[in-house]
Amino acid sequence: MDGDTLLDQVERAERALVDASRRSVRTDGDRPDTQERTVQDDFDAIIAAEQKIEPRDWMPDAYRRTLIRQIAQHAHSEIIGMQPEGNWISRAPSLKRKAILLAKVQDEAGHGLYLYAAAETLGIGRDELVAMLLEGRQKYSSIFNYPTLTWADIGAIGWLVDGAAIVNQVPLCRCSYGPYARAMIRICKEESFHQRQGFEILFTLSHGTPGQRDMAQDAVNRWWYPSLAMFGPPDADSTHSEQSMAWGIKRFGNDDLRQRFVDMCVPQAEVLGLTLPDDGLRWDADRDRYAFTPPDFDELARVIRGDGPCNRQRLAHRRRAQDEGAWVREAAAAHAAKRSGGTP
Ligand code: BYC
Q: Average pLDDT of 37-59?
């Protein structure tokens, strides 16, 4: 599977991160002695040299705000993303499947924690981020507003949703902000396993009884377009891509990554013996890529606005969990204060 290639890319990004930390940046540039150097010049030099911006470094306010928005949205997605899969933990078809799914859902919680911690290095508290999610002031990925109707949906989420997540996130391992890049390296290694377990569920179903095969095909039919939409609006309508790429936060535009995902999935669908629900899908020899029908971007906009099939249910569930967990947070804070000899 292409997952190997993506993992290779993660390892290269990890090596580049270590190499970058060993190089120093020349911040004097070609500037004449008469001109005073600004913090903005230093920031630009670090970005241009493919070094990492660290929490202690000066950064433009807009760079900080963009990172908080993207990292928080990503963290919220991991946490909300536990719901559609958690829905199947008690109904997984065997003990082995249950144990694997439990581990995967726990991984998503872990990813949320690494990401909230990365956002906190930008000077914002986790309480504030969670409040913004619950009040609808920050977003989470559109994909988690679709329901998981059958066991095959767990396979389709692993194969397609985690597959899309990896294609989108491997370039983020090279993000210019150090704490986000480091979190992404760890997350991508785990996502690669998640994608394989989804592929394996679908492979088992597609080689099972006719009923299991139909269930697998139906799940792929329903998850294909929402997965394509995960990459965001087309570049021409993307508010942030250009500036985020100039800052080295995003490395590729939304359309480029969507295309890579399609090119990765088509041969994998053949191995599964399943079809992708797009009559327009064909090899385009001139472009050396697959031509495909894009997702319905009006639907994406509706889901992002809060009008997807499960938006209200997802947020209501999250708010309930937050309320019900209040006593745990209070007890943990009281315990920590007692141990340090202070008051909560
Ligand atoms: N859903 O200018 P654009 C996972 C918003 S976790 C909702 O292109 P950007 C997993 C966008 O925020 C998956 N909103 O934005 C977890 C912006 O609105 P605002 C999450 C979306 O940021 C558990 C507006 O549309 N992955 O995979 O440059 C289990 C214009 O868009 C979406 C990440 O978060 C969307 N799909 O690019 C299994 C990865 N798309 O904020 C799996 C990190 C766009 O101006 N994030 N919007 O009001 C990114 O890479 C980028 O933020 C995006 C969007 C590519 C998603």
A: 94
From ligand 1's centre to the CA of 35, what distance in Å? 40
Residue (of 142, 152, 261) closest to 214 by Cα position: 152
Q: Does the beta carbon of 238 lie inside 6 Å of ligand 1?
A: yes
Total-model pTM = 0.93
Query: Cα–Cα–Cα angle for 60, 257, 277, nearest 5°?
Result: 145
Sign for the CA dihedral angle at 270, 271, 275, 277 comes to: negative
Ligand 1 center from residue 114 Cα (angstroms): 17
CA of 304 to the centre of ligand 1 (A): 10
Q: Whose CA is nearest to atom 26 of ligand 1?
A: 74
Q: Whose CA is nearest to atom 16 of ligand 1?
A: 78
Sign for the CA dihedral angle at 90, 92, 95, 99 comes to negative
Q: Which residues contact 167 (CB under 8 A, 6 or more apart)?
A: 6, 257, 260, 261, 264
145 in ligand 1 pocket by Cβ < 6 Å?
Answer: no
CA distance linking residue 286 with residue 268, whole number of Å: 22
Instruction: Please state the φ and ψ torsions of residue 32, each to the nearest 5 degrees.
Output: -65, 145
* Torsion 153-156-162-167 (CA) sign: negative
pLDDT digits (tens, 9 = 90+) for 190-230: 888 899 999 999 999 999 999 999 999 999 999 999 999 99
